[in-house]
TrEMBL record:
This is GGDEF domain-containing protein. SMART domains: GGDEF. The chain crosses the membrane at residues 49-71, 77-96, 103-125, 131-149, 156-174, 180-197. Keywords: Membrane, Transmembrane, Transmembrane helix.
Length: 396
């Protein structure tokens, strides 16, 4: 009946005590649970780096604009607009060193609205040729591809910029044939950009489907890890904590002397379990074990420990008990629960138990010592006539 315990004690004493197994499972849960968050963070980080590079490039181009305006014979007063845009893009690039949603939104507004309007005002006022007008607008529309706009937002930005470009071409100085050629170039560029945007949108859709699939797999992994945790740390029949879980919890109790000093361990061995199995079958034996687990739970409080050690042995650890009298009171309650009748298929099952009571003392330094002394006290109770409890003299 208790040979498993002594075998476990002999094997565990030959090796160093390992860290509680329960601490390994939260790591699995948190790692799986953070997978979707890491993917979203990575996507936002990639977009931030792309926009930051674009902001640096546009700031550098804006700084070159005064030189171009100088050679074009434009007055110094018009140099303020490119300088203002250079400062704005430099500020966005600096702030985009971190994930700043405000400046990501500002980059979109600058490129979708303000820059096309500035190009329209400047190119219309400068009276360039139609071919010279269409190129800056086409380059600006190409920038829309890296802004990660939604399909409707991209379509709006494309048509807004194209409309401004169309008006600028019609107002430019040049022959009608040059205007028609510029408009054709603009339409071809719009068609190509729309096709590329559609391809990118399809790619993003596929990536989204992959992310969703990975998220579902991570959720399945979490559920599987939770099932593994239950199988590893709980008894499959009664749902109580098993031996491994008990050892982990006793290690945590022993690590805190104040907590251990008011803790009492009860080792319970069912007296008539072999009779139940022989006379009524293993189904009746399983029903008795399940019923005993429920009754033991009803004796203790929420923070106390109820464990099926193995076979017909149970362990209860009650905390916060002051003195032997309170330990005796709990032992009496345990025996009282075992004396209550239990029916299985209309027949009364014989129930009873021998309880070894082992309060903590200074020599109890490991779970094995604690369980070993409680096991010895339980045999004293069994040899005294069963259906009794025995408090270890070492603790007294």
């Amino acid at each position: 009946m208790t040979w498993r315990f002594w075998e476990f004690k002999r094997n565990s004493s030959s090796s160093k005590p390992s860290a509680p197994l329960e601490t390994a499972f939260p790591t699995v849960f948190s790692t799986s649970n953070r997978l979707g968050e890491r993917m979203q963070t990575r996507a936002l980080e990639e977009r931030r780096i792309l926009l930051q590079s674009l902001a640096f490039l546009q700031s550098a181009l804006a700084l070159l604009m005064p030189m171009i305006l100088h050679f074009a014979g434009v007055g110094v007063i018009w140099w303020s607009m490119p300088m203002l845009f250079a400062l704005s893009f430099a500020l966005c690039a600096w702030q985009l060193m971190w994930v700043r949603p405000l400046f990501i939104w500002l980059m979109v507004v600058l490129n979708v609205a303000l820059v096309p309007l500035a190009l329209f005002a400047w190119l219309t006022w400068a009276s360039f040729s139609p071919q010279s007008v269409v190129i800056p607008f086409v380059l600006q529309m190409m920038i829309f591809l890296v802004l990660s706009l939604k399909p409707r937002e991209f379509a709006f930005a494309l048509w807004f910029c194209a409309s401004l470009a169309m008006v600028s071409i019609l107002m430019a100085n040049g022959k009608t044939l040059d205007q028609v050629a510029a408009i054709l170039v603009l339409l071809i560029a719009m068609a190509v950009l729309s096709l590329v945007a559609q391809r990118l949108s399809n790619h993003q859709t596929r990536l989204g489907a992959i992310r969703q699939h990975v998220r579902k797999d991570s959720e399945k992994l979490v559920l599987r890890a939770e099932k593994m945790r239950r199988l590893a740390l709980s008894d499959g029949l009664t749902g109580l904590a098993n031996r491994l879980s008990l050892i982990n919890k006793l290690q945590r109790i022993l690590a805190e002397t104040d907590r251990a000093s008011v803790s009492v361990l009860y080792l319970i061995d069912l007296d008539f379990f072999k009779t139940v199995n022989d006379q009524f079958g293993h189904a009746a034996g399983d029903a008795v074990l399940i019923e005993c687990g429920k009754r033991f739970r009803s004796v203790v409080r929420r923070g106390d420990i109820v464990c099926r050690l193995g076979g017909d042995e149970f362990v209860i650890v009650v905390q916060g008990l002051l003195g032997i009298s309170q330990a005796q009171l709990v032992a009496q309650k345990i025996l009282q629960k075992l004396t209550e009748p239990f029916l299985f298929d209309g027949q009364v099952m014989p129930l009873g138990g021998s309880v070894g009571v082992m309060p903590w003392h200074s020599n109890v330094t490991t779970p094995e010592i604690w369980l070993g002394e409680a096991d010895a006290a339980m045999y004293e109770a069994k040899s005294a006539g069963r259906n009794q409890f025995y408090i270890s003299r070492t603790a007294v």
